Amino acid sequence: MALFMLFGTPSSSADQGAYRLGVLPLQSPNKLAVMFLPLAEALSERLGRPVQFVTAPSFSAFMTRVSEKNYDILYLNPLLCSRALAHGYHVVAKVGGEPFTGILVVRRDSPLKELDPAQLPSRLRIGFPDPGAYAATVMTRRYLSRQGIDVDRRFQVKYFGSQDSALMALYSGLVDMAGTWKPSLRSMPKDVRNDLRVIAETPPEPQMPIAVRNDMPPADAEAIVAVLTELGQTPRGQAILGGMALPQGFVAANDREYEKVGEE
């Protein structure tokens, strides 16, 4: 049976007999639970031991727990994964299919049609989920900089803690533009999605990875890869992927793709 723990710092796997699936707080905790508990259940069945879904209240809290090896399985962004490698984890899989990109989104009725530095109004309000959100914040800020747009001078920058919150702030008119990534936009309610449009997309980087502790038994790591890469082959697995807004599924991966992520 899969277990659900939200923010509490868990004890060791040996004490609980459970593996902890640590999910970066990309979305609200309740939404992440809906997305990842079915995957935790599928992993639990294959591994023959409980798999506990866990998230954290912030990116920094999540990475503190990664540094303490409080999670056994990680779902996190490529930049933070490059740091997790130094804390005793290795990559076993990644999201397949579509490129990993950041997108800049505006309301459908926005007068902005393109990111022309000469045409951008001054002090435009832009929302990001978290300073550590790689696609939504780091990659989109870098993209804007390469377009000759100084984000901190040209925009009023606001952080909202999660992808959902940043997109809802845009939908509600609290900001004029938001940085996010495609799975988060896909996961929003239809009326919200229909009221937003993508104005720019960054160049791609390695996709969202799954990593495991280096001391996990190889047979268990292999079983995790098997579950992830086989999800698209069954109706149940396809439903799990649909609930995660990742219909393209997972493919096997390794550390080499992530060792230099974030280096300029």
Summary tags:
single chain; 264 residues; alpha/beta; D-Maltodextrin-Binding Protein, domain 2; seven-stranded mixed beta sheet; five-stranded mixed beta sheet; 11 helices; 20% strand; globular
What does this structure look like?
The protein is an alpha/beta fold. It has two domains: 147 residues, Periplasmic binding protein-like II (D-Maltodextrin-Binding Protein, domain 2, 3-Layer(aba) Sandwich), CATH 3.40.190; 99 residues, 3-Layer(aba) Sandwich (D-Maltodextrin-Binding Protein, domain 2), CATH 3.40.190.10. Helices cover 37% and strands 20% of the residues. It is built from eleven helices and twelve strands. The protein has a seven-stranded mixed β-sheet with strand order 1-3-2-4-11-5-12, sandwiched between helices. A five-stranded mixed β-sheet has the order 8-7-9-6-10, sandwiched between helices. Helix 2 links the parallel strand 2 and strand 3. Helix 2 crosses helix 10 and helix 2 packs antiparallel against helix 11. The longest helix is centred in the first third of the chain and has 19 residues. The protein starts with a strand and ends in a 12-residue tail after the last strand. About 3% of the residues have low confidence.
